[in-house]
Prior knowledge:
By secondary structure, the protein is an alpha+beta fold. Helix content is 27%, strand content 34%.
Amino acid sequence: xxxxxxxxxxxxxxxxxxxxxxxxxxxxxxxxxxxxxxxxxxxxxxxxxxxxxxxxxxxxxxxxxxxxxxxxxxxxxxxxxxxxxxxxxxxxxxxxxxxxxxxxxxxxxxxxxxxxxxxxxxxxxxxxxxxxxxxxxxxxxxxxxxxxxxxxxxxxxxxxxxxxxxxxxxxxxxxxxxxxxxxxxxxxxxxxxxxxxxxxxxxxxxxxxxxxxxxxxxxxxxxxxxxxxxxxxxxxxxxxxxxxxxxxxxxxxxxxxxxxxxxxxxxxx
Length: 269
């Protein structure tokens, strides 16, 4: 299975409106040129929505055989706006594999796979944040996809957890502790001062998310918690940031999302 995809500034704007990720590399061409580029790029998370949707379509073409799955992506190059890309998919045993390539250069932007996974167990913790079902439904209104569709429901919850990471005070506090000179009030202000790119994404999720109609009881809640951020590296070579957020209902684990970001060296600003 294969298809051609072409992203526009509108795709970036819709994802930013949902996620809160207004990283200037997606909107400010002058900022991009200072970094050595000459085109705006769409968010990697937005491009991944199409990959997730099509991999899930292949998965759901036959009856599900497992209770948990894992989606993983390695991001290699920016996905540029106004540029045609070739999305290719294949089945390799129990894995469904996808790759997005530049049609002109044949360079790989990112590759992904969707595969069966072990059971998901939530670690005990002292504190969790909570969203009501009504709050979750309100948030899905801005999602640039169809959250009620069986092939996209888990992508919505993955995107929701990413949004919660981006907007979390804990995320900003961890970054400003490592880089106090930034004096940033929001994560987007961090992005404006130091180029930050996503390099890896992994989502370990319950097959319950592939049947969204029966996911929540009316009185249920979405419980989530953000694990402490892992920061390695230094100012001269750049930092690698790994963030993990997990979510559950009252009775069942739903998903764990892991995001890895890479900053540019401070000396190159």
